[in-house]
Amino acid sequence: MPVQVFIETISSNSEAGSQHDALVLENEYLRVHVASWSGAIIRLTDKRTGIDVFHDEEGLLLTPAGETALDSVVVSSRPPEDEGDFGAIWVFVRWAGISYHLQLSLLPGVASLELEYRVLNRTLEPVSYIPELVLPSFKGLLIEGSGDDFLAFDPSRDAGLHWDCSGNPYDRVTVADGLKIAFHSGSRQLAPRQVDSFNLSLRAVSGISEPAAFGELVAMSMREDTLRIQAHRSLPEATVRILDADGAQHEAAVDLRPETVRTIPLGALRPKALQINSKGEQMVEWVQDAQAPKQEIQNQSTPAPKVDYVHEIDPRRMARHGHLRGLAAILQGIEAARDQDWSKADAHFETALLYQGDDPLLWWAKAAAKRLAGTEDEEVPELLNAHFLAPLEPMLKAEAFLNMPVYEGEGGHPMLNAFSHEDFTDCICLLLEFGFEMDAVHLLDEAIRHEDFLMARILLADLHLRAERHFEAAHHLGFAAKLPKPPHEPWRQVELDAITRLRQAFPSDAAIQSLAKKLP
């Protein structure tokens, strides 16, 4: 069957009678449920055996050392375009200062779920960062592999998850009530505008009892004088080679298909070593008395060392340090944008991309500078690159809105109906941070047309204050005093600077003084 992507309504155990939508990614062998409300993988089913490898409402989720996401989770999907294409689900999650973009994909004919993460520091300051993949409910055994992989296996359900983290350093941490995998844990900080990325493959192992050996395409076990083999892809020309206790070698051709677990009776044969090969390539090997170390899931933690960050204020001085040249070019581009020298800003952002080409917001900033300079191409390759790196990035939808004629309909533009207050605030702060002030004013006006909210009024008041229009600033603060406080404390530097300036300019304004008390 081709890869399918669809929406399924599921019932929640946490609230009686409540129902939610989950996106489902499915091929011949695996079915994956992703929660639309959190972006977590809440269920992975091995269709070959009908066993749920895990089924958990909290699910498998990436968190930066246990932090809670802001109200900025977006889940979308891309159905396969042809029979050989892969189907994908995209997830965008934002915390204070960090966001990540995840692509989950299945290929036709392979029982492997591919995860590709890109984590972005959205600020111009270093931020603390320890990426952890957490699966709260998983219990059982951890069995080490031969390289950057391991198997988490639950004997009570005859189900396991093979984590293949090839090329991505990880620090595995086990906890009493689940499984926690820390990636790149030596990086206690992400530098300004830095992108961290890592990939991994998850393979279901079920219906063969506790595996004696496992690899990229095969898992095998030996129980009750029987060899059981589960293949993750068709291996029609495989061979099993066995060395018995007397030193004699035995070899048999086997046709391994993912649809079924291959069972081979061993009779009186007592293997001392075993190999499964396909077309001359070794798929998996087992040697008696050399079994992989295993441990029960238990409390354990590994502290990560702190990485110092070199900070230079002047971007021209920063450019002398090779590892800071990309950031120096970004700051020079921001200077040019604030002077409304759009061509110069475009040139500096292009230089920065030579060092930080995986930053989707930098590609967006270059496209915005070209738009304002009047040199934008019809297709805008910069935005195509940004969409490829981060298809659910809210700033890209805001950029599409800013590139359209002024909307004169009633209420807000329908394109931005799905934007939350947090989405509007984040995009407006990015525009102000990058020096696109008039665009920020345009988006602020649009945000208020959708629904008036506190931070929009504060940012408008600050813009008027900086232009020495005190009456207009006080006017917007009057509206702000009547609006509810946001669920999250202000954390962006643009927000903090605006509140600080307004507190100093309006010492008798109770609303702004109350908000300022919570400044760090």
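the 2nd protein, sequnce then structure:
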Amino acid sequence: MNGIYAWVDWFQDLTKKVADGTPEQLAKRAKQVKLIDQGSKPHRLLQYGDDNIDPFSFVYTISAKRGNESQSRIVHSISEEFDLQAEFPVELDDAFYFPRGDPRNTFFHKDGAGNPELLWRLFRHAVLGVEEVRGEDFDHALKIGNVAIKKLTQTLFLINPKEFLPCDDANRPYMGADLPNNLSWNDYRHGMTKLREAFPECEPCEINLFTYSTHSKELKPSSEVFQVSTDIFFDDTDHWEEFKSNSWVCAPGLAYNVPFGEDLHDKVPYQLEKPERGDIVLVRGGGEGKGIGVVWRNDYKSSLKMDSKVHVVWLNKSRASLGGKSAGSHHFSRAPGIKEVFRQLPAYQPTFALLGINGGDDIKAAPTASQPLNQILYGPPGTGKTWQTVNLALQIVCGRSEDDHGRLKAFQDLKFNQEDLSGNIAMVTFHQNFAYEDFVEGIRPVLDREQEGLRYTLHKGLFQQIAHAARERPEENFVLIIDEINRGNIARIFGELITLIEDSRRIGNPEETEVTLPYSKESFGVPNNLYLIGTMNTADRSIQLLDTALRRRFKFVEMMPDPYHQDMAEIEGLKCGQMLSSMNERIAVLLDREHQIGHTYLLGVKDMAELSDRFRTQIFPLLQEYFFDDWSKIKKVLGKSPFVVDKEIRDGLVEDNSTDDEQRIYGRLADDSPEWKSPDAYRKIYDTNTNTAG
């Protein structure tokens, strides 16, 4: 093997030489290998006598070496001592994706007490393959002091990377929920079978690279999907075997149309330099799906040359007939629609399941069928409604959501373009002046400078355009996000189309309905693959006041403040979540529950300076808006905190007896007051010992 698996042949060459030799020969060679810098005391491997230089301890010690200088020294020394023919490119970082032993504990014995005879037998059988190993040898090896399942299976993987897999933190989540803690040989084999089923036709070293790199967060599968043909020279020759064996894909045939090095974007729709690490690549050719990989490195990003490659980690190397379905018209392109064609094939379903349950926190499974066609997220301001719409949109379009870094990138990449109808996610904000002519279609005046007058053109609105794109690409999902949906006049904006968004009236359903648009006279219907997600700020309007037609056709999802959100900080003993909860309890009593303060106002606050800024510029003004400068209620919401101050009525300002004794004038604490940055001042909002409303 080569490239990112260059280490595999080297280790196999080494372990075969060790297995063919004797314990005495290994001990002699181990003493000659430069395990440590010249002049240092002998390596710990040599300190327990020749009998304890067993092959497992030797291999695991090699894996524990870190750093290019140390790795280079020991690799060259071993290659010379054992006369190895395979090369190990130590300068290539990609070559080092194998389990690293703990340098403090590389022995397969306890202070010299072990079972060398057993370990030699197990080692020689492992070199030959899984089927040659005796189950009782594996089970007995686990009883040796200093040996555990992780250490034993990681070393078996290094001994034979084409037959074994480590059972460790990276791989164990894929080996089945029923895997016991104390594994036997049969349990281990069952776990390896489950793991290999998740990566059809892939070798253990390929599987391990994916699981290790995703576990360490060095590889994060994204929502971006590309497709490539194996007919790389446009001559009906299939190059899948090259792709498969070399762990890369390429498209050198593009040089026949556009010289490499020129700007491809203005010439052809190929985007060879676009795939980033983690993007998905679907490979097709000759009416077949060939496989699925995830990008590891893209040579085209630095140089558009004939010999450049997109290096991939294979997730699935099964071949499956596409059944005559469209699989893309270009030899390399983005592929949101082709993804759906692959997803429907049984051969590739394990991979799409894998990309949804890969053991990390960053990617979550979210089948689009679980989302309603029309939904509105409603709640007080600051509860994360708009943030959640992005997550939902990505789940619907891509089948999963992303972490914060990948979420915005994926959202931007999938943004709907009204010029060429590319992309899958659009967003619009309703307001009082928004109308049918903006949303669906209308006539707009255009200044004609040549004729020195006005002419009128037909304007197609966002809703009409994205619905048209959804009908043109039925294999893809589309999302239209309507922010502040309750602020628009629904009857005026949707007009007669409000009926068409009902589930039963969508195109493809038994009661599908189409209407003739008033301006263009075109037939219009809403397809089943267009999802509508609205947001509604309940501080602006109660759900009871919504247009009846809207309430009947949308499902409503309430989003309330979450004072126990995982990103709610505790600063210098001040519990921000408890403070928010106390304020909201009082707001609900003094006003109503729809005007509470959302948790996003306090997320990510790191210190008192940031909390002071959020409170002075966002939260306090929001309270002033809620209570229309009724300062006595604002003071009650803030408990015994000093942020609302009583102002004295100056003598002579009002006539005698014109005010009662209870009347007060309130004001806001001066912005330069140190109280704004005092944890004790905020703690008084929720401290039950002093928290009686004044």
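The CA atoms of residues 139 and 428 lie 63 Å apart. The two ends are 77 Å apart (CA to CA).
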